[in-house]
Design a protein that fits this description.
The chain has three domains: about 220 residues, Isopropylmalate Dehydrogenase; about 130 residues, Isopropylmalate Dehydrogenase (3-Layer(aba) Sandwich); about 40 residues, no CATH class. The chain is about 45% helix and about 20% strand. The protein has 14 helices and 16 strands. It starts with 9 loop residues before the first strand and ends with a helix. The structure holds NADP nicotinamide-adenine-dinucleotide phosphate and magnesium ion. The site of NADP nicotinamide-adenine-dinucleotide phosphate (NAP) has 17 residues, from helix 10.
Length: about 400
């Protein structure tokens, strides 16, 4: 059988623990037998990041920017336990944080739907994609408790020394204060990434804030989204037959619960934090959720939404064949290959990615699945497979 050629390479970022084990099995069984894989490989395993003082992480981010497409395995974000376990020089920053900052990117998460694993929200028939702004607001706040009565003020001292001053509250007793901020440039990047994603996936984009109450702060988000849309995306959206829809956050939440899905929900940082957990839990398993980082200049990095599945890895080290679900990892690869195919104009590679997704979901919908899904399947699973059996069975179907 002749292998499908690739025109350009993708950046491949290997990772840690159970996902690193499955990464190799997926490449050996599902990709390399069919595709003449072209990747630039970066080992983002914890030890390699520590040894290189994260030079490898920065190099991988550079490669994603240069090649336009990357695929990433899950990685450990170190803490004191990991420093001991891996005999590290010290704490290393989150690799996802480094890459997100380098690409100035926004993360989009999408549940992978199955006929036999129903969503707990029965009207959601199509994936609900969540785009979360990953900068500022309450996540970079400054807060204080005040002991008693007094005047709370908001003061801005410009680079030229000029002051702007406003009274927050004449406080009658003890209480709490909080200062938050955001930057126009960050909101602009977020807006662009959302509209680029909507166009790439051909889906409507929804955005919501509380601008009736927060006229200046949330109002600025609303204004910037409208300006970027009108100036850069209006015509492209019209041509693609998709829409940008703005509403109040309470209205958006109410609509989401009675809509069939199939759109991008762009969320401010806090809304995205809370709502992505709601969307993920409604669709059952973290392993049935994909994640893609999109930069405002249209660079894409695909990964699984889950972590390195540490508990399963320790069982694997003891010799157990675990039933870890590899679907999100497989979909990270198919997402990256399909994007490569789209950018390179190589439909054969795109068709391969589509087929691999179809056979993966087909196997599960025919009743053969990993343990996490078997717990929720309706009708009940016919057989529960370990990860290796599951991947072998997909390979059989591909052949
Ligand atoms: P996790 O790896 O997502 O796993 C948490 C639990 O969720 C697992 O113990 C397992 O539950 C279930 N699970 C997750 N993925 C699964 C899969 N593919 N198949 C079956 N079950 C799955 O989170 P964690 O254990 O809290 O974190 C482990 C490491 O991952 C940490 O060092 C963290 O820094 C890192 N992390 C990395 C990323 C990333 O690179 N994107 C994201 C999050 C966390 P059961 O044990 O009950 O089966
Ligand atoms: Mg959360």
């Amino acid at each position: 059988m002749s292998k499908i050629p690739m025109k350009n390479a993708i950046a491949e970022l290997d990772g840690d623990e159970m996902t690193r084990i499955l990464w190799k099995v997926i490449k050996d069984k599902l990709l390399e037998p069919f595709v003449d894989l072209k990747t630039e490989y970066f080992d983002l395993g914890l030890k390699a990041r520590d040894d290189s003082d994260d030079a490898i992480t920065y190099a991988s981010a550079e490669a994603i920017k240069r090649l336009g497409v990357g695929v990433k395995c899950a990685t450990i974000t170190s803490n004191q336990d990991r420093v001991k376990e891996y005999n590290l020089k010290g704490l290393t920053p989150s690799p996802n944080g480094i890459i997100r900052a380098e690409l100035d990117g926004t993360v989009f998460r999408t549940p992978i739907l199955l006929k036999n694993v129903p969503s707990t929200v029965s009207c959601w028939k199509k994936p609900l994609v969540l785009g979360r702004h990953a900068y500022g607001d309450v996540y970079k706040n400054c807060e204080m408790a005040v002991p008693g009565p007094g005047k709370a003020e908001l003061v801005f001292t410009g680079a030229d020394g000029k002051e702007i001053r406003k009274t927050i509250m004449e406080m009658k007793g003890s209480g709490i204060l909080q200062g938050i901020h955001n930057l126009d440039s960050s909101i602009e990047s977020f807006a662009r990434a959302c509209f680029i994603y909507g166009l790439a996936e051909n889906i409507d984009v929804w955005f919501a804030t509380k601008d009736t109450i927060s006229k200046t702060y949330d109002g600025r988000f609303k204004e910037i989204f409208k300006k970027i849309f009108d100036e850069e995306f209006k015509d492209k959206f019209a041509k693609a037959g998709i829409e940008y829809f703005y509403t109040l956050i309470d209205d958006a939440v109410a609509r989401v619960m009675r809509d069939e899905g199939g759109f991008l929900w762009a969320c401010k940082n806090y809304d995205g934090d809370v709502m992505s957990d709601m969307v993920a839990s409604a669709s059952g398993s973290l392993a049935m959720m994909t994640s893609v980082l999109v930069s405002p200049d249209g660079v894409f990095e695909y990964e699984a939404a889950h972590g390195t599945v540490q508990r399963h890895y320790y069982r694997y080290l003891k010799g157990e064949k675990t039933s870890t679900n590899p679907v999100a990892l497989i979909f990270a690869w198919t997402g990256a290959l399909a994007k490569r195919a789209e950018l390179d104009g190589t439909p054969e590679l795109g068709d391969f990615a589509k087929r691999l997704e179809k056979e993966t979901l087909g196997l599960i919908e025919d009743g053969s699945m990993t343990g996490d899904l078997a717990r929720m399947a309706n009708p009940a699973a016919k057989e529960v497979l370990d990860s290796w059996q599951f991947i072998d069975r997909i390979a059989d179907r591909m052949r």
